[in-house]
Amino acid sequence: MTNTGRYADLAVATLVVTDGAGTREVRYVRRRFLPPPATEAETLAEHTVVAGDRLDVVTARYLGDPLQFWRVADANLVIHPTELTDEVGERIRIALPQM
User: Fold this and answer.
1) Is residue 14 a contact partner of residue 25, using CB atoms and an 8 Å limit?
2) Which residues are CB-contacts of 58 (< 8 A; sequence separation ≥ 6)?
3) CB atoms within 10 A of CB 32
4) Answer CATH for 12-95 from 3.10.350, 1.10.287, 1.10.260, 2.40.50
5) Which of 14, 59, 84, 92 is the residue whose CA sits 20 to 30 A from 74?
6) Element (H or E) spanning 75, and its range?
7) What pTM does this model have?
8) What is the pLDDT of residues 13-40, one digit of tens each?
9) How many CB atoms lie within 10 A of CB 72?
């Protein structure tokens, strides 16, 4: 199975931390920046938010996979995906997934 999550391609880094318990290594994923709009894929559709919409359900409808909600968040340049379904009547851009 291919990992298609938003952090799949990011490098893992290690930081050595010294505290009261001694020295330990902390592993973390490097920072992920939103892709610039110019590099985004073509728009597949626009969805108008209705009462009760959830982004995972919207994503499943258009992209066939509710776990790809982050692609929709990236296409709309938001960090917190819930921002997209807060306002009834808001239009959400659904972009074709980049391969």
Assistant:
1) yes
2) 47, 69, 72, 85, 92, 94
3) 13
4) 3.10.350
5) 14
6) helix 69-75
7) 0.62
8) 898 999 888 999 998 888 766 666 655 5
9) 23
